[in-house]
Design a protein that fits this description.
The structure is a single chain. The protein starts with 32 loop residues before the first strand and ends in a 6-residue tail after the last strand. 34% of the residues lie in helices and 17% in strands. It is globular and about 55 Å long. The protein is α+β, with helices and mostly antiparallel strands. The strands form two sheets. Strands 1-7-6-5-4-3 form a six-stranded mixed beta sheet. A two-stranded antiparallel sheet has the order 2-8. It has one domain: Lambda Exonuclease, Chain A. β3 and β4 form a beta hairpin.
Length: 346
């Protein structure tokens, strides 16, 4: 059984001793991660420069970067987030899916827009010239591939949303993020500990890197926007990407962030850049090693508070509510309500 690094037992907040300070106890700014109060572009130098696709040589890192310790699984953020919600929910999600479930386009819209943005950035990175409709065509093709015919969400309307969203996000990236930056990677797949994660966009600005992740929201009212942008401040996903991005590119990741495309009620893009320090990444790594070890060792329990928390399940209760509460976790009876998932990659 793999264990976290000796002497680092303070990984998880609920495993720490009573004298260990938490993020809430620390003074402002002591967490090592900063959300700037000014507009995102105020952090990005060289706004009038054109984006470059060739990276200048960078001196070797002086900080310590390493792969996970031998035998340590390196679970990607999606699995970790599911496990933190409820280990049983994460386990069932890898094996079962509901037989009857109302289809919604939320996830598919995000995937389609991701596809269009990736084509746009690859064209810039490779220095190639493609038709202006290239990213849009890729986004529409991705939408059509995953679309499920039903009465609530028409394909024509969704195509219009994807078209507007892809254009708005790519235009915004060109204007706000790329000036003065070099594109190092687009949808970079990084394997660590037998698992992989995908970094949407990696930029080099000066001697350090930025890792950006694209998000799309079908609807987000302005009154909820500040809280949504603040999520980047404590995003497990972004810190995971920062750590693994450093190890992959062998350059310091100084900034991570989310580019949030909001499709309604008003079409716009908002950025939440976050400055990362070595101390913050070291803190994250302690937590990661503890959590990965518990996941790898099969720690399993029900988090009953998560069963009907609609904030955790996209406005619904847990999809395995009946499996736990009516079938008492007897998976031999699951086929009546759920169908087996096809074998999924890490």
């Amino acid at each position: 059984m793999w264990s976290p690094t000796p002497g680092l037992s303070g990984g998880l907040p609920w495993l720490r001793g009573s004298t260990s300070p938490s993020a809430e106890d620390a003074p402002a700014g002591a967490s090592g991660i900063n959300v700037p109060s000014g507009p995102p572009t105020s952090m990005l130098p060289g706004e009038t420069d054109k984006p470059s696709s060739s990276a200048a040589p960078v001196e070797p890192l002086t900080t310590s970067l390493s792969d996970p310790p031998a035998g340590c699984p390196s679970y990607p953020p999606t699995e970790v987030q599911r496990w933190l919600i409820c280990p049983v929910f994460n386990d069932y999600s890898a094996k079962w899916e509901p037989r009857v479930e109302a289809w919604t386009p939320h996830r598919l819209l995000g995937m389609a827009i991701h596809a269009g943005v990736a084509v746009h950035l690859r064209n810039l990175m490779d220095g190639s010239v493609s038709p202006a409709t290239g990213p849009i065509a890729s986004a529409i093709a991705s939408l059509r591939e995953g679309y499920v015919q039903q009465e609530t969400w028409g394909l024509t309307g969704l195509e219009a949303l994807v078209t507007k969203g892809t254009k708005r996000l790519t235009d915004s990236i060109d204007e706000k993020l790329l000036p003065g930056a070099t594109i190092l990677g687009v949808e970079t797949s990084i394997e660590a500990g037998g698992r992989h994660r995908i970094l949407d966009c990696t930029l080099q600005r000066g001697d350090t890197l930025e890792v950006w992740d694209w998000k799309a929201s079908l609807r987000l009212d302005d009154r909820y926007l500040p809280d949504r942008l603040l999520e980047a401040h404590h995003s497990w996903q972004l810190l995971d990407y920062a750590w693994h991005g450093q190890a992959h590119f062998q350059r310091v990741v100084h900034r991570v962030g989310q580019g949030l495309l909001i499709l309604g009620p008003k079409l716009k893009v908002e950025y939440s850049p976050v400055t990362v320090t070595k101390e913050r990444l070291d803190q994250w790594r302690l937590d990661a090693e503890t959590i990965w070890a518990m996941m790898g060792d099969g720690f399993m329990w029900h988090n009953w508070k998560a069963c009907s928390d609609k904030h955790l399940h996209y406005g619904q209760r847990c999809p395995f509510y009946e499996g736990c509460h009516d079938l008492y976790g007897d998976e031999s009876q699951f086929p009546g309500l759920y169908r087996p998932m096809k074998e999924k990659g890490a």
